[in-house]
Design a protein that fits this description.
Elements lengths: L2 H29 L12 E7 L3 H11 L9 E7 L6 H11 L3 E5 L9 H12 L4 E4 L4 E2 L4 H7 L5 E5 L2 E3 L9 H22 L11 E4 H6 L15 H9 L3 E4 L7 E3 L5 H13 L1 H7 L1 H23 L1 H22 L13 H20 L21
Parallel strand pairs: 1-2, 1-4, 2-3, 6-9, 7-10
Antiparallel strand pairs: 4-8, 5-10, 6-8
Helix pairs in contact: 1-6, 1-11, 1-12, 2-3, 9-13, 10-11, 11-12
Length: 386
């Protein structure tokens, strides 16, 4: 065995401990999962930032206006962020028909570093709800979404993180990119949800997110992260976690949201690069989560190097990871109402995912993505660091 082989074996083994430790903790956390519900009614403000979403708003607003939650107990504010399509006219049609639907015409898009945070901030400032509930304009929410989310708030809960998955009409006819995205969504959320079962808060996605107005105000809203193009979800969650607030994950299937699948690899890489760009902020907001992400990427790199210099040892590490991962997926999928038959796609996902994750992580560290027509400001991490 050469010194180079020994170095990569040691490094791969060290980084591999992340899979072993957290797979064990997650398995234990899911098995002991208990979720209490509070059926106290609270006024809710559903807030959606929309920019040129005419193709999706009809479906979203239809689902939002047909909730089981009392109509007089929630408002729907669609923040139209200077759309140039028919978004405004669609929102106005619903505003005329439903008393709790409101159109907000956002101002200052050109001056804002983060248009979405700017739109959300303006909408929140005009809202009346004790609870702010957000989703994206290309999502469809279930009939019990508001009711289920509100029920997850105990008196001391600051934020409730929810689950979303892509809506594939027919798995067999879906292109490879959408099958990969669907599987990757489930895997990502399984890891995210698992962190909450062991008392940690690693991530959140704005497609299904709720927080109290009081908690939002106490952390200063998006004030300390407004100069970051992305991160209106995970970074806000981390600010609340740092403030010692209680954050929960909603495992009720009545709260699970659908989002539209991404049509091509270029757009998927861009989206995941944007998500990965928030990794830099985690270094300051949640060093533990940051180190876990670093360990995962470093293991992929070391394992790839071992395949090149000693394929037998590389294969051994790879198979150990696969066995641990499959067991975790098989155990965890039912908690997210994911079909275990999807595991037949696991070999394909496993071949693509290491390269995909490594690529988007590297691109994300250099902010090589665009979002809502913008590129991120170079060096923007946290105002507290500047």
């Amino acid at each position: 065995m050469t010194p180079l082989e020994l170095v990569f074996i040691i490094l791969a083994f060290v980084f591999f401990q992340t899979w072993i430790v957290f797979s064990y903790l997650y398995h234990k956390g899911f098995k002991n999962l208990k979720q209490d519900y509070n059926y106290k009614k609270r006024y809710v403000s559903v807030i959606v930032a929309a920019h040129n979403e005419a193709d999706h708003l009809l479906h979203l607003l239809t689902s939002l206006t047909n909730q089981t939650y009392p109509a007089e107990m929630y408002e729907i504010i669609i923040a139209d962020d200077e759309s140039t399509d028919d978004s405004r006219s669609i929102i106005l049609q619903f505003e005329e028909k439903y008393a709790n639907v409101k159109l907000l015409e956002v101002k200052g898009r050109d001056q804002a570093v983060s248009p979405k945070k700017n739109a959300l901030t303006q909408a929140i400032s005009l809202s009346k709800g004790d609870i702010i509930l957000t989703t994206d304009a290309d999502c469809i929410v279930p009939q019990h979404w508001i009711e289920s989310t509100v029920a997850s708030f105990a008196d001391d809960t600051a934020m409730v993180v929810g689950y979303s998955r892509t809506k594939l009409r027919e798995w067999r006819k879906a292109p490879l990119v959408q099958k990969f995205e669907h599987m990757d969504f489930v895997a990502t959320y399984l890891v995210m949800a698992g962190s909450y079962t062991i008392g940690k808060s690693f991530a959140a996605i704005g497609q299904n997110l709720a927080y109290t107005r009081d908690a939002f105000d106490k952390v200063g809203g998006f004030g300390s992260i407004k100069h970051m193009l992305s991160g209106d979800d995970v970074n806000l969650m981390q600010l609340m976690r740092l403030a010692g607030m209680n954050i929960k994950f909603n495992f009720s299937p009545y709260s699970f949201v659908y989002t539209e699948p991404i049509p091509n690899w270029k757009m998927l890489v861009n989206q995941r690069t944007r998500w990965a760009s928030n990794m830099k902020a985690q270094r300051a907001l949640n060093p533990e989560f940051f180190m876990i992400l670093v360990c995962i990427v470093c293991f992929y790199i070391c394992n790839l190097a071992l395949f090149i210099i000693n394929w037998k040892i590389g294969l051994l590490f790879f198979l150990c990871k696969v066995l641990i991962e499959i067991e975790l997926f098989y155990m965890g999928f039912p908690y997210l109402k994911a079909d275990r038959k999807m595991l037949f796609f696991y070999p394909v996902w496993q071949v693509i995912q290491p390269f995909f994750l490594t690529l988007t992580t590297i691109l994300g560290q250099f902010n090589l993505y665009r979002w809502r027509g913008r590129s991120p400001i170079k060096g923007a991490i946290l105002e507290r660091e500047t």
